């Protein structure tokens, strides 16, 4: 999976699954950047073939509805949708 990496404060393993055309995904990414959090992200809609199948399986493991944005923290906490308070609570 070709994840993009954003430098920042290490708060554990933070992964954002997003769509390049999604306003809420963009707001979530901007919030993580504003908070200075280190994270990896992938725009699922820009993947193809086997990579897309693998990414979709990954997202569905955490979020069976396959909705975006999906933020996975330390392979245990999941935040679905733009939930600023929840993100701040888990990462600040």
Structural features, described:
- The structure is a single chain.
- The chain is of the alpha+beta class and 92 residues long.
- The chain has a single domain, classed as Glutaredoxin (3-Layer(aba) Sandwich), CATH 3.40.30.10.
- Helix content is 37%, strand content 23%.
- The protein has 3 helices and 5 strands; from the N terminus they run ββαβαββα.
- The protein has helices spanning 23-34, 49-62, 84-91, and strands spanning 4-6, 14-18, 39-43, 70-73, 77-80.
- A 5-stranded mixed sheet has the order 1-3-2-4-5, with helices on one face.
- The longest helix is centred in the middle third of the chain and has 14 residues, at 49-62.
- The relative contact order is 0.25.
- The model has no long low-confidence stretch (mean pLDDT 96).
